[in-house]
Design goal:
Layout: H1 2-50, H2 58-63, E1 67-68, E2 71-72, E3 74-79, E4 84-87, H3 103-111, E5 113-119, E6 126-133, E7 139-146, H4 150-194, H5 212-268, H6 275-307, E8 315-318, H7 319-336, E9 339-345, E10 349-352, H8 354-370, E11 376-385, E12 388-395, H9 417-422, H10 429-439, E13 443-449, E14 453-461
Parallel strand pairs: 9-11
Antiparallel strand pairs: 1-2, 3-4, 3-7, 5-6, 6-7, 8-10, 11-12, 12-14, 13-14
Helix pairs in contact: 1-4, 5-6, 6-10, 7-8, 8-10
The protein binds adenosine-5'-diphosphate.
Length: about 475
């Protein structure tokens, strides 16, 4: 890139020099021609003043040796018909052609003076002719001189021209080199900095450059690198969460399996001496199997929520009948825990997935029953506030201690592990609820007082 910039810079410079040189020489040529013509005209004017037209003109013009710019001038005097009367170049002017048709003569006849530039047949070189109408009689005076314009000067000036060209070229090469370096150096630095991306925790920093475009590249690169790093971190974090989930899930499954195995071994070894004990062991095996079943159900629910969100079918779901039906199915659990359930429901229709909504209310109401006290109450309210549907599940139960309030939505987190297990809890219920609420861009709020009760408020936008 540096070479290309350098090369192009020099090409542009040479073109500019050529172009400006041509324009300059055309202008100078014109000035030179004009000045020479004016000088020649002045000479003719003086000659006209000094000549005595009454006597022989030949000796008069021969006496005048006009040397102009190192070249001898030739003088001619004609009558107004173009007939030659005297010529400094020839001894016998009688041999000369009539000059009336010459361009400079025609012009002088019309305008008082005239000029022409052409190649002389006799001298075989470019000549400048200037003619002048005498103010003292019917005569035309003409002066002719070799004139090759700038060419003569160029030869004289050649060393100076070459020297200045050389100096210009050297200075511009130095500048072009510096200029191309000022572009390529930042690029090298940027790419050098980009190599850091291979490191574990790259911290890119670019210094400000002279060119805005380069700063833009540096800035965009930095932002891109930051974004890549952020998403890498997110991926790492998600990987960690997943890993943790699998570890926890296997651990949770291992516990019931171990105890089932234990009870079966007890039965096999004839440790259950009477029928009652046998029934007791069987009941415990059944309970552990049920725990495993709900754990697997919850794990499946989470994995569905995480992976199959795109395939979810959305329908119009009437919330009140759904809650009613749930309360009906949870009645045995409520009776068992001596809890009464109240409901106040405004008709609400949501565009949601039925299974997810059922799971959400099921988890909240089940918790409100499970973590209640005998003679306790559960109150379910469904209302509309602005554009949101609001669902409140309150209980008069054991409450949640301050330090656990943030953590109850984490997977497998339980405040009282013993109680949760006894109640068949998996520790996944509230994390599933939060997942579903987030899916519908809603929010969930927890208010709880230890020993007094808990209130969970879910807000879901209705469109
Ligand atoms: P679990 O299956 O154990 O109920 P959840 O995720 O539903 O798991 O709840 C996590 C923990 O939060 C529970 O173990 C319990 O300690 C606490 N919790 C949830 N709901 C309530 C509630 N209504 N009252 C008191 N504690 C609750």
């Amino acid at each position: 890139m540096k070479k290309v910039i350098f090369k192009n810079f020099i090409i542009i410079l040479i073109l500019a020099l050529l172009l400006s040189g041509s324009i300059f020489s055309v202008i100078i040529s014109n000035v030179l021609l004009k000045n020479t013509r004016q000088n020649m005209l002045n000479i003719l004017h003086i000659m006209d003043q000094t000549f005595d037209y009454e006597v022989d003109l030949k000796p008069q013009i021969d006496n005048l040796t006009i040397v102009y710019e190192g070249n001898k001038a030739r003088l001619t005097i004609m009558d107004i018909n173009g007939g030659i009367m005297a010529d400094s170049g020839v001894s016998d002017h009688m041999d000369m052609d009539n000059h009336i048709d010459r361009e400079e003569i025609q012009e002088a006849l019309g305008e008082g003076n005239g000029w022409a530039r052409r190649k002389s047949d006799t001298l075989k070189m470019s000549m400048l002719y200037v003619s002048y109408m005498s103010r003292h009689g019917d005569y035309i005076l003409r002066i002719a001189m070799p004139f090759s314009g700038l060419v003569d000067y160029v030869l004289v000036l050649l060393p100076a021209i070459l020297l200045s060209l050389g100096v210009t070229l050297i200075i511009s090469m130095i500048l072009a080199n510096r200029f191309s370096r000022s572009i390529t150096k930042p690029l090298y630095e940027i790419s050098e900095e980009l190599l850091k991306l291979q490191e574990k925790n790259p911290e890119l920093s670019f210094k400000p450059y002279e060119y805005d475009e380069l700063n833009l590249i540096a800035d965009t690169t930095k932002r891109m690198a930051d974004a890549v790093r952020e998403s890498m971190k997110k991926i790492e974090f998600e990987k960690m969460i997943r890993q943790e989930f699998f570890t926890n899930a296997s651990h949770e499954l291992k516990t019931p399996i171990t105890s089932i195995k234990g009870y079966i071994e007890l039965l096999e070894n004839g440790m259950a001496t009477d029928e009652n004990m046998k029934m007791e062991f069987m009941a415990r095996i059944k309970k552990e199997a049920q725990n495993m079943a709900s754990l697997i159900n919850d794990i499946l629910m989470i994995s569905r929520l995480e992976t199959k969100e795109a395939e979810i079918t959305i329908t119009e779901v009437r919330i009140c009948p759904l809650i009613n039906e749930l309360i009906e199915s949870l009645k045995p659990l409520a009776v068992e825990n001596e809890v009464t359930i109240e409901m106040s429901c405004k008709p609400i229709v949501l565009m949601v997935n039925y299974g997810q909504m059922r799971e959400l209310f099921n988890n909240l109401i089940t918790n409100a029953i499970k973590y209640n006290k005998p003679k306790g109450k559960v109150k379910i309210t469904a209302t509309i506030e602005g554009k949101d549907a609001i669902f409140i599940v309150e209980d008069t139960g054991v409450g949640i201690p301050e330090e656990s309030k943030q953590r109850v939505f984490e997977r497998f987190y339980r405040v009282d592990k013993g109680r949760s297990k006894k109640m068949g809890g998996t520790g996944l219920g509230l994390s599933i609820v939060k997942h579903i609420v987030n899916y519908y861009n809603g929010s969930i709020e927890l208010d709880s007082m230890l020993g007094r009760g808990t209130r969970l408020t879910v807000r879901i936008p209705m469109n």
